[in-house]
Design a protein that fits this description.
It is globular and about 80 Å long. It contains 17 helices and five strands. 50% of the residues lie in helices and 5% in strands. The mean pLDDT is 95. By secondary structure, the protein is mainly α. Helix 6 packs antiparallel against helix 17, helix 8 packs antiparallel against helix 13 and helix 9 packs across helix 17. The longest helix has 27 residues. A hairpin with a 4-residue loop joins strand 1 and strand 2. The strands form two sheets. It has a three-stranded antiparallel β-sheet with strand order 3-4-5. Strands 1-2 form a two-stranded antiparallel ribbon. The structure holds coenzyme A. Coenzyme A (COA) binds next to loops.
Length: 429
């Protein structure tokens, strides 16, 4: 067995350097000693989109993309989806261990206690245009919460941090539901703390004039599992935004607004919406071959396929595919599922997708379920945000407690103009 080091020779100078390897990585900063002269800044790494750079050491979520494995704190996602609840999973992600019965009761009580939002938030939402995208409303209202809880800026005060964490997990469904009701022109529904986390969310979305809203138990159960499946996914775009913005030591509401903004994009949390649009556009199973040919010619992407990390079937997509049938049994079958199944079958036999290891990801079936539940497409990313909240918070806390972390500040390779003198506007050509 050789040494855990990497020897590099700089052919510009002929000098060799021995760099330590730890956990399968070399430290980029160790390259800085490699210089051609004493005034040289030193060697840097260039890694656009962080394709091969670890930004942190983490103990939260493990993914093996080649094998299609996802664990939260060591527990396989399939077991959590089958046996845990969303709030228990949230506790696990944040605390690191599964709670005892009394710990879970206290955690659940704390979340339930914080579901209301300040009345001025309602007025704030009223100011949005009638057709405002709920995700745009969510980004702004989550950020606005920081102005209601100025003590949240004490990010190193662990007790205050705990309260903000309860507030964020508790209030995000309320904000999401208000955003949806605003879009529909419906009165806002206050939280019902006698219901479960998912049941209360369904109540805030759908309750009309009933005295007591009773959520459909199948939809309540499926939604809870969907939240579990979305709860964390290590250093994805929104978690990196949470960590990156949080590294400035801003309060967690502002950092969460940044994470929500990252999730808004069509390549991240907006993909499930794009999948439903795509399936509607395809229209029928007969139109799939022509659509696939268009994808192969680069005219469009097969939305809900492909992943930066998974080069195998996304384990969450497998669970979601099963959930779809539970939802259809409860509320009726969506015609889009037949197009989706056929699309998946054809794509997984086609060399274009096979050779690029493009498999269905979490978004391929989730949008179909949400649509069958009666939710409009632009609410889909908002549901993703509710599920992802505990993951963002766990990542944020881990970053704050990590003594190696500092304000995130990448380097660049400057390719712009050299020094030049300012020219008066009258003298410019
Ligand atoms: C998720 C995603 C952004 C990952 O992108 P990435 O890691 O940068 O992967 P790349 O863009 O390098 O893709 C590698 C190859 O597969 C192709 N590819 C990737 N996803 C594809 C898709 N959904 N449809 C068609 N081709 C795709 C790329 O064009 C590229 O082909 P090339 O080698 O001929 O250039 C990308 O797969 C995608 O856009 N998927 C659709 C959106 C989606 O479902 N997002 C949800 C993610 S959970």
């Amino acid at each position: 067995m050789g040494k855990d080091t990497l020897t590099v020779t700089d052919n510009r100078t002929g000098k060799s350097y021995e760099l330590p390897i730890r956990d399968g990585t070399v430290r980029a900063i160790d390259l800085r000693q490699i210089k051609v002269s004493s005034d040289d800044f030193g060697l840097m790494t260039y890694d656009p989109a962080f394709m091969n750079t670890a930004s942190c050491r983490s103990r939260i979520t493990y993914i093996d993309g080649d094998k299609g494995i996802l664990h939260y704190r060591g527990y396989p996602i399939e077991q959590l989806a089958e046996r845990s609840s969303f709030l228990e999973t949230a506790y696990l992600l944040i605390d690191g261990e599964l709670p005892s019965r009394s710990q879970l009761e206290t955690f659940t009580r704390n979340i339930t206690y914080h579901t209301m939002v300040h009345e001025n938030i309602r007025k704030f939402i009223d100011g949005f245009r009638y057709d405002a995208h709920p995700m745009g409303i969510l980004v702004s209202t989550v950020g606005a919460l920081s102005t209601f809880y100025p003590e949240a800026k004490n990010v190193f005060d662990k007790e205050s941090r705990r309260t903000e964490l309860y507030r964020l997990i508790a209030k995000i469904p309320t904000l999401a539901a208000y955003a949806y009701r605003h879009r529909r022109g419906l009165p806002y529904v206050y939280p019902d703390n006698d219901l479960s986390y998912a049941g209360n969310f369904l109540s805030m979305l759908f309750r009309m004039t009933e005295r007591q809203y009773v959520p459909n138990p199948v939809l309540e159960g499926v939604l809870d599992v969907l939240f579990i499946l979305h709860a964390d996914h290590e250093q994805n775009c929104s978690a990196s935004a949470m960590r990156g913005v949080g590294s400035s030591q801003v309060d967690p509401y502002s950092a969460t607004a940044a994470a929500c903004a990252a999730l808004y994009g069509p390549l991240h949390g907006g993909a499930n919406e794009a999948v439903v649009r795509m399936l509607n556009q395809i229209g029928s199973a007969g139109a799939i071959p022509a659509f696939i040919e268009g994808v192969k010619r680069g005219e469009q992407k097969l939305m809900g396929f492909g992943h930066r990390v998974y080069k195998n079937y996304d384990p969450r997509a497998k669970v979601i595919k099963r959930l779809a049938y539970e939802v259809f049994d409860a509320v009726g079958r969506s015609p889009l599922i037949d197009i989706a199944l056929e699309l998946e079958r054809i794509a997984l036999q086609d060399d274009y997708f096979v050779s690029r290891k493009l498999y269905p990801n979490v978004d391929f079936y989730s949008g179909i379920i949400y649509q069958a539940m009666g939710l409009p497409m632009d609410v889909f990313p908002v549901l993703f945000a509710i599920g992802r909240m505990p993951g963002w918070l766990a990542q944020w806390e881990e970053m704050l407690d990590d003594e190696e972390q500092k304000i995130a500040r990448p380097r660049q390779i400057y390719l712009g103009s050299g020094r030049r003198d300012y020219v008066a506007i009258s003298e410019r050509r």
